[in-house]
Write a structure and sequence with these properties.
Elements (H helix, E strand, L loop, with lengths): L1 H8 L3 H32 L11 H7 L1 H12 L4 H17 L3 E3 L8 E2 H11 L7 H13 L7 H6 L4 H10 L9 E2 L4 E2 L6 H30 L4 H25 L8
Antiparallel strand pairs: 1-2, 3-4
Helix pairs in contact: 5-7, 5-10, 6-10, 10-11
Length: 260
Protein backbone atom coordinates (compact mmCIF):
# COMPACT_ATOMS: atom_id res chain seq x y z
CA UNK A 1 0.00 0.00 0.00
CA UNK A 2 2.76 2.43 0.96
CA UNK A 3 4.70 1.58 -2.21
CA UNK A 4 1.63 2.23 -4.35
CA UNK A 5 0.94 5.56 -2.59
CA UNK A 6 4.58 6.53 -2.99
CA UNK A 7 4.36 5.86 -6.71
CA UNK A 8 1.06 7.69 -7.21
CA UNK A 9 1.98 10.72 -5.09
CA UNK A 10 5.60 10.84 -6.21
CA UNK A 11 6.79 10.98 -2.59
CA UNK A 12 9.61 8.91 -1.08
CA UNK A 13 8.49 5.78 0.81
CA UNK A 14 10.57 6.73 3.85
CA UNK A 15 8.72 10.04 4.17
CA UNK A 16 5.32 8.33 3.99
CA UNK A 17 6.34 5.65 6.50
CA UNK A 18 7.59 8.26 8.96
CA UNK A 19 4.33 10.19 8.69
CA UNK A 20 2.24 7.02 9.15
CA UNK A 21 4.25 6.04 12.24
CA UNK A 22 3.81 9.53 13.70
CA UNK A 23 0.03 9.33 13.21
CA UNK A 24 -0.09 5.86 14.79
CA UNK A 25 1.91 7.03 17.83
CA UNK A 26 -0.34 10.06 18.20
CA UNK A 27 -3.49 7.92 18.01
CA UNK A 28 -2.09 5.52 20.63
CA UNK A 29 -1.17 8.38 22.96
CA UNK A 30 -4.67 9.87 22.58
CA UNK A 31 -6.29 6.52 23.43
CA UNK A 32 -4.06 6.03 26.47
CA UNK A 33 -4.76 9.57 27.62
CA UNK A 34 -8.52 9.11 27.31
CA UNK A 35 -8.38 5.83 29.22
CA UNK A 36 -6.40 7.37 32.08
CA UNK A 37 -8.82 10.29 32.34
CA UNK A 38 -11.83 7.96 32.66
CA UNK A 39 -10.16 5.67 35.24
CA UNK A 40 -9.02 8.58 37.40
CA UNK A 41 -12.46 10.13 37.37
CA UNK A 42 -14.13 6.86 38.37
CA UNK A 43 -11.77 6.44 41.33
CA UNK A 44 -12.36 9.97 42.57
CA UNK A 45 -16.14 9.97 41.99
CA UNK A 46 -17.49 6.39 42.28
CA UNK A 47 -21.14 7.55 42.63
CA UNK A 48 -21.09 10.02 39.78
CA UNK A 49 -21.50 9.42 36.05
CA UNK A 50 -18.15 9.47 34.31
CA UNK A 51 -17.19 12.59 32.39
CA UNK A 52 -14.05 13.26 30.50
CA UNK A 53 -11.71 15.68 32.22
CA UNK A 54 -11.04 18.87 30.28
CA UNK A 55 -8.18 18.55 27.87
CA UNK A 56 -5.03 20.59 28.28
CA UNK A 57 -6.04 22.67 25.29
CA UNK A 58 -9.46 23.52 26.81
CA UNK A 59 -7.89 24.48 30.13
CA UNK A 60 -5.40 26.65 28.34
CA UNK A 61 -8.15 28.53 26.52
CA UNK A 62 -9.99 29.35 29.74
CA UNK A 63 -6.97 30.33 31.81
CA UNK A 64 -5.60 33.90 32.17
CA UNK A 65 -2.20 32.57 31.13
CA UNK A 66 -3.70 31.60 27.77
CA UNK A 67 -4.82 35.19 27.14
CA UNK A 68 -1.35 36.49 27.92
CA UNK A 69 0.18 33.85 25.64
CA UNK A 70 -2.10 34.89 22.76
CA UNK A 71 -1.21 38.54 23.26
CA UNK A 72 2.49 37.68 23.27
CA UNK A 73 2.06 35.75 20.02
CA UNK A 74 0.56 38.79 18.29
CA UNK A 75 3.16 41.11 19.81
CA UNK A 76 6.07 38.87 18.80
CA UNK A 77 8.17 39.54 15.67
CA UNK A 78 6.41 36.59 14.00
CA UNK A 79 2.75 37.54 14.41
CA UNK A 80 -0.06 35.19 13.49
CA UNK A 81 -1.03 37.27 10.45
CA UNK A 82 2.58 37.37 9.30
CA UNK A 83 2.96 33.61 9.69
CA UNK A 84 -0.26 32.94 7.75
CA UNK A 85 0.94 35.05 4.84
CA UNK A 86 4.36 33.36 4.81
CA UNK A 87 2.76 29.91 4.96
CA UNK A 88 0.52 30.70 1.99
CA UNK A 89 3.48 31.76 -0.14
CA UNK A 90 5.47 28.67 0.85
CA UNK A 91 2.51 26.51 -0.21
CA UNK A 92 2.39 28.21 -3.59
CA UNK A 93 6.16 27.72 -4.04
CA UNK A 94 6.13 24.01 -3.15
CA UNK A 95 2.88 23.13 -4.85
CA UNK A 96 2.92 25.36 -7.92
CA UNK A 97 6.55 26.50 -8.17
CA UNK A 98 7.00 25.49 -11.82
CA UNK A 99 3.50 26.42 -12.97
CA UNK A 100 3.20 29.25 -15.50
CA UNK A 101 1.83 32.33 -13.71
CA UNK A 102 1.25 34.78 -16.57
CA UNK A 103 1.03 34.19 -20.30
CA UNK A 104 4.26 35.61 -21.73
CA UNK A 105 4.20 38.36 -24.32
CA UNK A 106 6.01 37.73 -27.55
CA UNK A 107 9.75 37.58 -26.91
CA UNK A 108 9.38 37.40 -23.11
CA UNK A 109 10.38 34.46 -20.93
CA UNK A 110 7.69 32.37 -19.22
CA UNK A 111 6.88 33.76 -15.77
CA UNK A 112 6.54 30.93 -13.24
CA UNK A 113 5.24 31.00 -9.67
CA UNK A 114 8.40 30.37 -7.61
CA UNK A 115 10.71 32.81 -9.47
CA UNK A 116 7.99 35.48 -9.40
CA UNK A 117 7.53 35.20 -5.63
CA UNK A 118 11.27 35.17 -4.90
CA UNK A 119 11.95 38.15 -7.18
CA UNK A 120 9.17 40.16 -5.54
CA UNK A 121 10.51 39.38 -2.05
CA UNK A 122 14.04 40.33 -3.11
CA UNK A 123 12.91 43.62 -4.64
CA UNK A 124 11.49 44.70 -1.25
CA UNK A 125 14.32 43.04 0.75
CA UNK A 126 11.86 40.82 2.61
CA UNK A 127 13.07 37.80 4.57
CA UNK A 128 10.61 35.37 6.16
CA UNK A 129 10.48 35.53 9.96
CA UNK A 130 10.08 31.74 10.14
CA UNK A 131 13.59 30.25 9.61
CA UNK A 132 12.19 27.04 8.07
CA UNK A 133 10.22 29.01 5.50
CA UNK A 134 13.27 31.12 4.72
CA UNK A 135 15.37 27.98 4.27
CA UNK A 136 12.80 26.67 1.78
CA UNK A 137 13.03 29.98 -0.13
CA UNK A 138 16.85 29.90 -0.15
CA UNK A 139 16.93 26.33 -1.45
CA UNK A 140 14.25 27.09 -4.04
CA UNK A 141 16.33 29.95 -5.38
CA UNK A 142 19.21 27.61 -6.18
CA UNK A 143 16.95 24.81 -7.48
CA UNK A 144 14.88 26.81 -9.96
CA UNK A 145 17.97 27.42 -12.09
CA UNK A 146 17.48 23.82 -13.25
CA UNK A 147 14.62 23.81 -15.75
CA UNK A 148 11.72 21.53 -14.81
CA UNK A 149 13.12 20.75 -11.36
CA UNK A 150 10.50 19.05 -9.14
CA UNK A 151 10.27 21.25 -6.04
CA UNK A 152 7.51 19.16 -4.45
CA UNK A 153 9.56 15.97 -4.66
CA UNK A 154 12.68 17.70 -3.34
CA UNK A 155 11.00 19.13 -0.25
CA UNK A 156 8.85 16.07 0.61
CA UNK A 157 12.06 13.99 0.59
CA UNK A 158 14.05 16.62 2.48
CA UNK A 159 16.51 15.32 5.13
CA UNK A 160 15.11 17.90 7.57
CA UNK A 161 11.92 16.21 8.82
CA UNK A 162 10.31 19.54 9.74
CA UNK A 163 10.69 20.78 6.16
CA UNK A 164 9.39 17.50 4.69
CA UNK A 165 6.38 17.72 7.03
CA UNK A 166 5.68 21.27 5.85
CA UNK A 167 5.89 20.10 2.23
CA UNK A 168 3.55 17.14 2.85
CA UNK A 169 1.05 19.48 4.49
CA UNK A 170 1.25 21.85 1.51
CA UNK A 171 0.45 18.94 -0.82
CA UNK A 172 -2.10 17.21 1.41
CA UNK A 173 -5.15 18.05 -0.74
CA UNK A 174 -3.28 17.46 -4.00
CA UNK A 175 -5.67 14.77 -5.18
CA UNK A 176 -8.98 16.46 -4.33
CA UNK A 177 -11.21 17.46 -7.24
CA UNK A 178 -9.56 20.34 -9.05
CA UNK A 179 -12.84 22.15 -9.78
CA UNK A 180 -16.05 22.83 -7.89
CA UNK A 181 -19.31 23.00 -9.78
CA UNK A 182 -22.18 25.10 -8.51
CA UNK A 183 -25.73 25.04 -9.77
CA UNK A 184 -25.20 27.95 -12.13
CA UNK A 185 -21.50 28.15 -12.86
CA UNK A 186 -18.14 26.44 -12.78
CA UNK A 187 -15.76 27.84 -10.17
CA UNK A 188 -12.12 28.07 -11.23
CA UNK A 189 -9.62 25.89 -9.42
CA UNK A 190 -6.87 27.39 -7.29
CA UNK A 191 -4.27 26.68 -9.97
CA UNK A 192 -6.35 28.52 -12.56
CA UNK A 193 -6.51 31.58 -10.26
CA UNK A 194 -2.79 31.78 -9.41
CA UNK A 195 -2.30 34.99 -11.41
CA UNK A 196 -4.72 36.61 -8.96
CA UNK A 197 -3.87 34.70 -5.76
CA UNK A 198 -0.06 34.93 -5.79
CA UNK A 199 0.18 38.76 -6.08
CA UNK A 200 -2.52 39.04 -3.40
CA UNK A 201 -0.60 36.76 -1.03
CA UNK A 202 2.50 38.93 -1.48
CA UNK A 203 0.44 42.03 -0.68
CA UNK A 204 -0.99 40.36 2.42
CA UNK A 205 2.53 39.60 3.68
CA UNK A 206 3.62 43.22 3.13
CA UNK A 207 0.44 44.44 4.84
CA UNK A 208 1.20 42.22 7.86
CA UNK A 209 4.76 43.56 8.00
CA UNK A 210 3.44 47.14 7.94
CA UNK A 211 1.03 46.31 10.79
CA UNK A 212 3.94 44.99 12.82
CA UNK A 213 6.05 48.08 12.15
CA UNK A 214 3.18 50.38 13.14
CA UNK A 215 2.83 48.56 16.47
CA UNK A 216 6.58 48.82 17.05
CA UNK A 217 6.52 52.56 16.35
CA UNK A 218 3.56 53.03 18.69
CA UNK A 219 5.57 51.39 21.47
CA UNK A 220 8.51 53.67 20.68
CA UNK A 221 6.13 56.63 20.86
CA UNK A 222 5.13 55.72 24.41
CA UNK A 223 8.77 55.60 25.50
CA UNK A 224 9.59 58.93 23.81
CA UNK A 225 6.73 60.91 25.40
CA UNK A 226 9.17 63.22 27.25
CA UNK A 227 11.14 64.02 24.10
CA UNK A 228 9.08 66.31 21.81
CA UNK A 229 11.49 66.10 18.87
CA UNK A 230 11.58 62.31 18.98
CA UNK A 231 7.79 62.21 19.26
CA UNK A 232 7.44 64.32 16.09
CA UNK A 233 9.91 62.10 14.24
CA UNK A 234 8.11 58.88 15.23
CA UNK A 235 4.71 60.34 14.38
CA UNK A 236 5.95 61.22 10.89
CA UNK A 237 7.19 57.65 10.47
CA UNK A 238 3.83 56.27 11.64
CA UNK A 239 2.02 58.56 9.19
CA UNK A 240 4.15 57.19 6.32
CA UNK A 241 3.38 53.63 7.38
CA UNK A 242 -0.36 54.34 7.46
CA UNK A 243 -0.08 55.85 4.00
CA UNK A 244 1.44 52.61 2.76
CA UNK A 245 -1.23 50.62 4.56
CA UNK A 246 -3.91 52.65 2.80
CA UNK A 247 -2.42 51.67 -0.56
CA UNK A 248 -2.37 47.99 0.44
CA UNK A 249 -5.93 48.24 1.78
CA UNK A 250 -7.10 49.57 -1.57
CA UNK A 251 -5.33 46.77 -3.45
CA UNK A 252 -6.69 44.13 -1.08
CA UNK A 253 -10.21 45.49 -1.27
CA UNK A 254 -10.45 46.58 2.36
CA UNK A 255 -12.79 49.47 3.08
CA UNK A 256 -10.84 51.19 5.80
CA UNK A 257 -7.45 51.22 7.46
CA UNK A 258 -7.89 50.38 11.13
CA UNK A 259 -5.37 51.78 13.65
CA UNK A 260 -3.57 49.32 15.94
Amino acid sequence: YVKECSRLMDIAETVLLRKINELRRQELQNRNSEGQNVVTHKEDNPQVHTEETPTAQEEKVDSPESSNSTKQEWDSPSSAANDRAERTLIRYIIRYGNVELFSPKEGDDVCRVAPYILEDLHSDEIKFSNPLYQKICDETESLITHEGFDLARHFTSHPNSEISDIALDCLSDKYELSKIHTRFQQVLSEEERLSELVPRALLELKDAIIDKKIKQKQEELKLAKDNPEEVKKIMREIAKLYKLKTVFAKELGERTVRPF
